[in-house]
Amino acid sequence: MDTKTASAKPITIGGRPFGKDRFFVIAGPCVLESEELAFSVARTMRDVCRDLGIPYIFKSSYDKANRTSIQSFRGPGLKAGLEVLGRIKADLDVPVLTDVHSVEEVGPVAAVVDVLQTPAFLARQTDLLVACARTGKPVNIKKAQFLAPWDMQQVVAKAESAGNTRILVTERGSCFGYNNLVVDMRSVALLSRGPYPVVFDATHSVQLPGGQGISSGGQRDFVEPLARAAVAAGADGVFMEVHEDPDQALCDGPNSLRLKDVPAVLEALLGIYHVTRRHAPVAR
Q1: Ranges for the DAHP synthetase I/KDSA domain (predicted)?
Q2: What is the pLDDT of residue 5?
Q3: Does 154 map to a domain?
Q4: What is the domain extent for residue 121?
Q5: Are 14 and 25 in contact (CB under 8 A)?
Q6: Residue 2 domain-assigned?
Q7: Looking at the domain assignment, is residue 13 inside a domain?
């Protein structure tokens, strides 16, 4: 991917720089199941990342509008969800990110969160992309499962058309037959040639869409090896859905990382990042 209009300068998020010169993490439970769980995960992730010197963004969804079944848990909804996200941001002093599924929700969401995310399934929804970009807030654009990495140039251009260059681009795997995804690490390398920070979605990339009939399955064991490969291939940050007890999670449990496993995983990824970038270790 290549663009000529954007700056390669770090993006300021929550008063902190995020860019191509420092490994960062976006993580949290897939959906806001409860305020207690959200705060517990956010607090633990904040502390782990602080100890490792890794910039951190909390992620969770107030509404999962793309669940497999009409019976699936979607979340607390816009109003209640934003209240929780706002409290996490204020009480824990961490920037927050959430996904937006409609133009009508962009304004209320932008008033609370630090980063707006466009879902992979909606990567070609022009009105949504432009509306998110017009807020001036950073936008995390997830590459659709059906798009090639070079197709993202046109997707990014839609956000740039609103005058916003505070953009993150996320790779999250590609459709591979039915109910399966595959990650081509060439995609990470190609996306990283552009001016914007590239994020690897390590947990959605091991998802088995619709693989359990009324919900998606996943292969949690492959989260860490794929994340390692992606960081080595050029990813600037990783996106991970984490949960205290993934087997009991109300959304994306099979592909979520156990919270207790996060410190070891991040320490390994940070080491790979420093080796492949030939940077001096970040001061802790």
Answers
A1: 19-265
A2: 41
A3: yes
A4: 19-277
A5: no
A6: no
A7: no
Kindly state the DSSP code that residue 256 receives in the 8-state scheme.
P
Please check whether residue 91 lies inside any domain of the structure.
yes
- The count of structural domains within the chain is 1
Compute the residue count for the chain.
284
The answer to whether the beta carbons of residues 234 and 205 sit under 8 Å apart is no
Written as six digits, the tokens of 122 are: 């909606």
Burial call 69-79: b when 16+ CB within 10 Å, e when fewer: eeeeebbbebe
130 phi and psi angles, rounded to 5 deg:
-65, -40
Angle at 55 between CA 53 and CA 59, to 5 degrees: 135
Asked if pLDDT for residue 171 goes beyond 70, the answer is yes
Closest CA to 81 of 103, 105, 102: 105
Backbone angles phi, psi at 277, to 5 degrees: -95, -10
CATH number for the domain spanning 123: value is: 3.20.20.70
Residue whose pair of structure tokens reads 């010197």 in the numeric block: 53
Beta strands in 8-137 (DSSP E): 11-13, 16-18, 24-28, 56-59, 96-99, 115-118
What is the pTM (predicted TM-score) of this model? 0.92
Cα–Cα distance between 195 and 271 in angstroms, integer? 23
How many CB atoms are closer than 10 A to CB 15? Answer: 8
- The dihedral built from the CA positions of residue 103, 109, 115 and 118, taken in this order, carries a sign that is negative
* Residue 79, pLDDT above cutoff 70: yes
